[in-house]
Specification:
An 8-stranded parallel beta sheet has the order 1-8-7-6-5-4-3-2. It is of the alpha/beta class. The longest helix is centred in the last third of the chain and has 15 residues. The chain has a single domain, classed as Aldolase class I (TIM Barrel, Alpha-Beta Barrel), CATH 3.20.20.70. It binds D-xylitol-5-phosphate (DX5) and zinc ion. The site of zinc ion (ZN) has 6 residues, from β2.
Amino acid sequence: MAGKAEVIILTKMHKVFLAPSILSADPLNISGSIDGLENNFDWLHVDIMDGHFVKNLSFGAEVVYALRKKYPDLFLDVHLMIDKLETILPIFMKPNGASLITIHAETDSHFLHASLSEIKKAGFQVGISLCPPTPVSAIENVIDLVDLVLIMSVTPGFGGQKFIENSLKKAHELVSLREVNKLNYKIEIDGGINADNFIRVAKAGVDVLVMGSAVFGNENPAMLLKKMKSQLKEEVETF
Ligand code: DX5
Ligand code: ZN
């Protein structure tokens, strides 16, 4: 598998999306942090944390619906880091909110097939996420249901952590699995992505790069995103 993945990674160029994570935006001025950036990124990543699945709390569903109202055309990439899916999921599945809803392979894993199908049936794109210790093999039986696989490249819960290198091995495996099974899911990576490592990560076959602190901690996020886009165009994408 590893050998085959290497060939694919070296030969297949792909379009790479940038997805700033509002976890690192100014909590008192989220839309102010986004305004003026819209033309420089592809997706907006919204981290939902419940204080159980991860050791932190973040936003409620109201933030997703408010973002949709203010930015009707934005692709809202909602990452649910929560337990109690059966209670919380319906709150996020109302119309005029998320574009894509990602749940974790580690949450109620015996209900994974049902939960993914439910999200899809409600008309959303659906993603599945893997925490750093969870292998790709954990989702092989449901991977044909998803539009996206999200590799957590830090322990979920907080922005500003160091990228876990082993995550690239998962990206290689997912590229290979997608090719072998003729599937179409996007591969997204989340945690520790910055201006120093994003090209290397994109070259491993990743389609969507989530970035929190690197974007919102920068004094000129628009300029940074613009620069990253043109570097991706030159070094990774064919179009
Ligand atoms: C972490 C979140 C990430 C976070 C990434 O649990 O899922 O989306 O915002 O932040 P950085 O890019 O700072 O690692
Ligand atoms: Zn996230």
